[in-house]
Amino acid sequence: MKKTYLVSAALLLAALFLSLTAVFYFQPILNASFWLIALVTLVLFALLIYIYPFARIIKAWPRPKQISLVIFLPIFSILASFSVRGEQGYLADNHLVIKLVVYFGMFLAVAILVMAIIKFFLAIKPATELQKVSPVYVLIYMLPMLAASMVMFIAFYPAAMTPDSMAQWEQAKTQEFTNWHPVMFTWTIMFLTKLWDSPGSVALFQIALLAITMGYLGYLMKRFNLHSAIIWVVLIGAALVPMNSILSITIWKDVTYSISLLFFSLLMILLVKTNGEETKKLSFMALFLISSFVLVFFRHNGFPVFVITMIVVLIMYRHTWKRLLPAALVIIVIHQIITGPVYTKLDVVDSDPQEALSIPTQQIANIVVNNGDMDDDQRAYVNSLMALEKWPEKYNPYSVDPIKFSWGDYDRWVIYNDWPGYFKMWGGLVVQNPALAIEGFLKQSSLVWQMNLPEDGRMNRYVTNIYYGNEFGLVNRVIYPTVTQAAGKYLSVDDSAKETIWRPAVYIFLSTLLIYIAYLRNNWRVWLLLLPIALNTGAVTATIPAQDFRYLFSNTLFLYAALFISLISFVPRGGGKLEK
Q1: Residue 563's pLDDT is what?
Q2: What pLDDT band is residue 8 in, cutting at 50, 70 and 90?
Q3: Which residue of 21, 73, 277, 333 is most buried, as measured by CB atoms within 10 A?
Q4: Residue 571's pLDDT band (cuts 50, 70, 90)
Q5: Measured between alpha carbons, how far is residue 171 from residues 182, 251, 367, 470 in Å?
Q6: Can you list the alpha helix ranges (DSSP code H) found in 175-252?
């Protein structure tokens, strides 16, 4: 009994210390209210009590998983702490020891929260066997997402469109194609508008795709024997999250691509769960071909995501090669034919290579604007790209667009005429100014890793209207003013909590944690399920032009798959039994 009291007292003191450091991490500790500190202390104390017995369970784990926890927990906690860090000018005048204590305490507080989440999920009995389920359940489980999207469709009829949307709409009408935006999506718009010449036809197409994919997720969850309550909580929760419904009516290539990436990931879950046996079914192969086709054609980075994933799949599940290899080759050959001879025949204009140079451009700009170290040759080269005095005027740390679209000032042909010279100059500047180069990269890619919106940054979340003043005379029509007003209020981002749910980094961290929990429950093969979304995230990070939520919409959708993965169990070699 005495030992229990001593342990409780020690945990309470630890919770108090961690609460002070955690609060100080976000605001001046002298400005913090007593009740805030008390509340954080009680929460951390409860978490410490909850995870205290977990150490005995961890000791029973296999050695590799114990080692994995020692590696994963500190790395994840440090990165998460860094991700939620805001402006901390109030810490500047404190002693270095105080700063280190605050950072260490915050890291420990995040680690405790992560351990509590891990324990909670591992305590849930996982689903094991598969069962026969009627495909009708796809139609049943698609209803929440369908209802939410249709509300947005009625509220902002017939669709939402930005200049990017209008560019593809124009191509669909003129049939003068450019690969700046994927031509396959333009062709899709052409086909759909033959059926109904309105943006609403494309919006309904995207609504149907998202609803069917969420329905298929629910179908798989039921097939994997997850409790009905969990299924409905996930599906209704996904329907209530505002970004899913509003993006479903926004005409962007990113929407259809993100949906296809989720569907492709669901098929990978089925493949791993059944140890490849599912590939023997015609229905699986048909769905695989369809989702793969959309994946490789509806955004440029989809093709490498598909190819790399399939290479890994064929290595891990070699016994499926007779079925998966021909299917993968069909997709690759079709892609090469369409993007090669077909594009040539149709005079498709190539995309601007500048699209892939967002990070180097921003790093150069950050070095120039902050008077970084440049020799005379480098200074002359940068000046030939754009006059040195123009860089401070055009540089936005979070978007390359002001530089990229400075057609009269920014001479991209300097790059195109001498690619080796450009990369030599850029590499030299990075080596000479590593701190400024890292700063430029982190700010430009903050959408990927930062869970809070930077104080000096802005983010493009969504639109609810068709681009005003467009040459096609497309306009929105208010059908039910009450619905439009209510939907607009529902979408408004007017507090920090709403702001947070629009940060893709939140979903990236949560998905990674859930996949790690699935690994602890199963084995290393589970990491295959993270591969497609990880490759996509990496590709976006390397080329991200601005802070648009749509670029990483796929990460939001993948969270539902990650939650699903964390709740199921695989047999030792990563597969499962087919339904009885």
Answers
A1: 96
A2: confident
A3: 21
A4: low
A5: 11, 14, 38, 14
A6: 183-195, 199-223, 228-240, 242-247
d(CA 528, CA 574): 10
Residue 457 pLDDT more than 90? no
- Token digits of residue 129: 């066997």
DSSP state of 399: B
CA–CA dist 58, 76 (Å, integer)? 18
Beta bridge partners of residue 127, listed in sequence order: 568
Contact 378, 429 (CB under 8 A): yes
Tokens of 394: 């055009």
SS3 127: strand
Handedness of CA 217, 220, 222, 225 (dihedral sign): negative
Q: Which long-range contacts (CB under 8 A, 24 or more apart) does 296-300 make?
A: 296/331, 296/335, 297/182, 297/184, 297/185, 297/335, 297/338, 298/182, 298/184, 298/185, 298/253, 298/256, 298/257, 298/260, 299/182, 299/253, 299/254, 299/257, 300/179, 300/182, 300/351
The CA distances from residue 65 to 62, 513, 522, in Å, are 6, 14, 10
Read off φ and ψ for residue 178, nearest 5 degrees. -130, 140
| Across 425-431, average pLDDT | 96
Residue 178: strand, helix, or coil: strand
**Rounded Cα distance, 230 and 218, in Å:** 10
Q: Could you say which DSSP state residue 94 is in?
A: S
Residue 480 has pLDDT above 60, yes or no: yes
C-alpha to C-alpha distance for 489 and 494, rounded to whole angstroms = 10
Q: How far is CA 403 from CA 392, 399, 572, in A?
A: 10, 9, 53
The answer, yes or no, to whether residue 580 has pLDDT greater than 80, is: no
Check residue 574 and give its pLDDT.
43
CA distance 231 to 414: 55
Q: Show the tokens assigned to 506.
A: 């939140």
What's residue 357's pLDDT?
Answer: 93
What are 349's strand-pairing partners? 178
Q: Facing residues of 466 across strands?
A: 161
How far apart CA 385 and CA 389 sit, in angstroms, is 12
Listed residue (23, 215, 200, 197) closest to 138, CA to CA: 215
DSSP 8-state assignment for residue 241? S
Whether the link from the prior residue into 74 is cis, omega within 30° of 0, is no
| Contact (Cβ atoms closer than 8 angstroms) between residue 261 and residue 539 | no
| pLDDT category of residue 578 using cuts at 50, 70 and 90 | very low
Tell me the C-alpha distance between 182 and 204, whole Å: 20
pLDDT in tens, 136-188: 999 999 999 999 999 999 999 999 999 999 999 999 999 999 998 899 999 99
